[in-house]
Write a structure and sequence with these properties.
The protein is built from no helices and eleven strands. With 123 residues, the protein is an all-beta fold. Strand 7 and strand 8 (76-81) form a beta hairpin.
């Protein structure tokens, strides 16, 4: 199982980035995928998730600015981040869990993790 996060970088406040999580080694359609982030000196924080069936849920601080989508043909999940703020600065990780029995729900814990991509929001 492999998850490869990409798309991070330096962006000014108010800007946008699109993160991608490319996956391989498992039946993508059967897995819920989530994004987490960890800022320097802080605990890891759940950001957004997308269920097997495409239902989504996001944290209160981002759900009005970020959107998550999945491309089952490309085995990839995207996180579109708009209106970025300095507090969004963190390493962003994608994670996966086999959850095909619950197509409308995101799990609370995840079994497989990618290596992270750094997002820096600064002027």
């Amino acid at each position: 199982v492999q998850l490869q996060a990409s798309g991070g970088g330096l962006v000014e406040p108010g800007g946008s980035l699109r993160l991608s999580c490319a996956t391989s080694g498992f039946i993508f359609d059967d897995y819920a995928i989530a994004w987490f982030r960890q800022a320097p000196g802080k605990e890891r924080e759940w950001v957004y998730c997308i269920s097997v069936g495409g239902s989504t849920d996001g944290g209160n601080s981002v759900k009005d600015r970020f959107t998550i989508s999945r491309d089952n043909a490309q085995h990839t999940v995207h996180l579109q981040m708009n209106g970025l703020e300095p507090d969004d600065t963190a390493v962003y990780y994608c994670a996966a869990k086999h959850y095909y029995r619950y197509p409308k729900t995101c799990p609370r814990s995840y079994d497989y993790w990618g290596q992270g991509t750094l997002v820096t929001v600064s002027s």
